[in-house]
Amino acid sequence: MTRKRWWIGAGIAAMLVVAAVIYYVYDPATMPFPRCPFLMLTGWECPGCGSQRAIHSLLHLDIAAAWRYNAMLVLSIPYVVLLLVAEWLGRRRQSRLYRVLNSEVLIWSYFVLVVAWWILRNVINI
Amino acid sequence: MKHYFTTNGERNFGPFTLEELRAQSLCATTLVWHRELEDWTEAYRLEELADLFEGEVIPPPQIPTTQPINHTDEYRPPMPSSNLGWAICSALFCCTPLGIVAIFYAAQVESVYRRGQYAEAQRLADKASMWATVSAVLGLIYIVMYVLIMTLTDLV
Questions:
Q1: Long-range contact list for A28-35, CB < 8 A, 24+ apart?
Q2: pTM of this prediction?
Q3: A36 contacts in B (CB within 8 Å)?
Q4: Residue of chain B with shortest Cα separation from A45
């Protein structure tokens, strides 16, 4: 079981490195990267639209540009990193950090934020 | 100094010092406890008492009676991972609507767990993981198809 987990972890890490290199080298703003199917079908942006360009900007340490492409992504990255850290540190799932990060209030707030972001970015074009 | 206690199953006796305890007519299977022990322990198992029972025939332990599992406090499995990080990533990078469904399930894991509905919490955590995975797989399929179609149209 632990061995299997290790391989899964290694596989994910390898894919992340490959993706990081691709997104560092190529700029999705100028290259024909995959477009969001939701945007193509409906004409509306989804909460993830701009993620690829934002990642390219982040990899070039241009946080302001990343924020313009997808502010939600920039806000979410620290949360996801903390969640991963808490998952690895608090394997028993009872550490304070883990409990706070996974508390109902915080997750529902995040949920509402994402849905609000989805609506607002189409209404007021952010 | 250690303080020892004994029990007859209904009442506890003590505290005793080791000397006081040894002076009593202990049975090999008398249950003894001191603060370094996790649970009541049969006297013959304790190093400092073992010599009292040398050569004695130790009766086998009682067959434990099966007790119904009390889900409110005694049996508490670890809180399942809410899989929130996974859900967020799938919402922002892969198939968004399904990723948001995953966040919706992840959000409920903690409160359901706190209410003591452990199986339900596990079910919600699994659902969050499942929707995040579906979202990721669809996203990957889409990217591969997209790249394939782009390359093919380029070639044509």
A1: A28/A52, A28/A53, A28/A56, A29/A53, A29/A56, A32/B150, A34/B142, A34/B143, A34/B146, A34/B147, A35/B146
A2: 0.62
A3: 96
A4: B96
